[in-house]
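Q: Sequence in, structure out?
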Amino acid sequence: MKFLIDECLTPELAKIAHGKGHGETSHVVWLGLAGLKDWELKPIILEGDWTFVTKNSVDFRGPKDNPGTKGQYADVAIHAGLVCLNGPPGMDLDMQVLEDEETLRVVRYALPKE
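A: Exactly. Output:
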């Protein structure tokens, strides 16, 4: 997989991905895209076939009470993917690179019916 790490997350995540064999992984800042809004990143993510990694999940998956209904990807039939690191407020850099599997929970959201 080819991950693009959002600027709200540490570049250390991209380095970890490289070490795990995902050599095409990059970070928004490394590509000179810092400061772009999510809607401005969307065509870059889609055209580059990136799996986007962010902690701003609402912007992409829609509201928490109705995931998959609205958000930046709502009008896209298929894409490489989205990984949302949802942590507590103030999720610091150490918490972002935590590799303790006992503290991680993976939630898969259903695709919209439309």
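The CA atoms of residues 19 and 60 lie 27 Å apart.
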